[in-house]
Write a structure and sequence with these properties.
It contains 13 helices and 17 strands. By secondary structure, it is α+β, with helices and mostly antiparallel strands. It folds into 3 domains: about 80 residues, Rossmann fold, CATH 3.40.50; about 60 residues, 2-Layer Sandwich (Dna Ligase, domain 1), CATH 3.30.1490.20; about 200 residues, 2-Layer Sandwich (D-amino Acid Aminotransferase, Chain A, domain 1), CATH 3.30.470. Strand 9 and strand 10 form a beta hairpin. Bound molecules: adenosine monophosphate. The site of adenosine monophosphate has 13 residues, from strand 14.
């Protein structure tokens, strides 16, 4: 009996555990919160990731370890890797944890990125905003996610407020300033690399964010073969450079037909949730297969899929469950503003059927504005 250890016990760990059940796997999730939602399906070890005693207990109980949470301290991942196989490797995790290291890596691999610079002092911020130009975004280098730890500088007059908001973090998690990219679309590649080095990607996905948080994903993205091939090439180059094992997502901006890399998520990703029902093998199943050294499965998708995130509280399930291709995911979390509490995936064989399902769900739930950009894209591109 193989036990997979997961650092982090949120919805990603929960969906990994659900997906691993048919493979006969056992799981142990570790989280700092006793009510972490993976605990409803897998034993949960509650502890701090820096606590060696808790980590030792975790290491002794698992055959292989992986992550649901990318901000596990890199030192803890390294400590663990000396005791049990850890995938992705701690070096890859560390690279993805720091926006400056990550963007420097993109550039060194020839993956286009917008202008960026490290910022340690207020004087540097002034100089870099002058060089890069406004609008731009001041972000924490580490520990930011879902738009948190970011401040938009629309004009130079906002620099005071930006430094007021984030300046104190220059000495702790570090800061980076990035050019604001007036993108037409946000895309992501979700891909998997096996222990043997085999690489597969799911079809390119288009994503819409609201207040920095993912709201909807559409697969396949209506982006054309050439752009998809370019995106897959970037993902493959990254995976090989980092000797990455498991699933990851590369988030991209598309501007005037050009791709610019935003960030690398070293784990299964929200923009890949549609693969549970929409692809031959889901991102969760392939992540487990990869970390266990098993053959990875086909990433071919079935028809068209749209995922809608539920943020804050769960809506009524009826409108989704009434659809032939409607699938419901409730993470078993208590409601809280801004929290990802669940999602739905609508899958259909034709664009017309997906459009109809989105219209019905949007109206049924009073969420017309959430489905509107997806419907517009389907109508524009078919
Ligand atoms: P991040 O945490 O970096 O993924 O940022 C969250 C969201 O903020 C992204 O998905 C974009 O919608 C937006 N965003 C972040 N960085 C930029 C940028 N440099 N230019 C334009 N929009 C951005």
């Amino acid at each position: 009996m193989t036990t997979v250890g997961i650092l982090g016990g949120g919805q990603l760990a929960r969906m990994l555990a659900l997906s691993g059940a048919p493979l006969g796997l056992r799981f142990l999730a570790m989280d700092t919160e006793p009510d972490a939602c993976a605990g409803q399906f897998a034993p949960l070890l509650v502890g701090d990731y820096r606590d060696e005693k808790a980590l030792a207990e975790f290491a002794a109980a698992v055959d292989v370890a992986t992550f649901d949470f990318e901000n596990v301290p890199a030192e803890s991942a390294r400590w663990l890797a000396e005791r049990v196989p850890v995938f992705p490797n701690p070096h890859a995790l560390a690279a993805a944890q720091d926006r400056l290291v990550e963007k420097t890596l993109f550039r060194s691999l020839g993956i286009p990125v917008g202008e960026f610079a490290a910022v340690d002092t207020r004087a540097q911020l002034d100089a870099e905003v002058a060089r890069i130009g406004a609008p731009c975004i001041l972000k924490t280098r580490r520990l930011g996610y879902d738009g948190k730890g970011q401040f938009r500088i629309k004009t130079a007059a906002d620099i005071d407020a930006a430094w007021e908001a984030l300046g104190a973090q220059a000495q702790t998690v570090g800061l980076i300033v990035e050019a604001f990219i007036p993108f037409e679309r946000e895309l992501s590649v979700v891909a998997v690399r096996s222990r043997a080095g085999e690489f597969l990607a799911w079809p390119l996905t288009e994503n819409w964010h609201v207040d920095g948080v993912l709201s909807a994903s559409l697969a396949p993205a209506r982006a054309g073969e050439a752009l998809a091939a370019q995106a897959f090439g970037h993902a493959r180059a990254l995976a090989e450079a980092l000797d990455y094992v498991g699933v990851f997502a590369l988030e991209l901006f598309c501007r005037e037909g050009q791709l610019l890399a935003n960030e690398l998520a070293p784990r299964v990703h929200n923009s890949g949730h549609w693969t549970i029902e929409g692809a031959e093998t889901s991102q969760f199943q392939n992540h487990l297969r990869a970390v266990l050294g098993l053959p990875i499965g086909s990433t071919r998708m079935r028809g068209h899929a749209c995922m809608l995130n539920w943020i804050g509280e769960m809506p009524d399930a009826g409108a989704v469950l009434r659809e032939a291709g409607g699938h419901w995911h409730d993470y078993g979390k208590s409601p809280r503003q801004g929290r990802k509490v669940g999602h739905a995936t609508l899958r259909a064989d034709s664009v017309e059927a997906l459009t109809q399902a989105l219209l019905a769900v949007g109206t049924g739930l009073g969420r017309e504005s959430q489905v509107a950009p997806v419907i517009a894209r389907l109508r524009e591109h078919g």
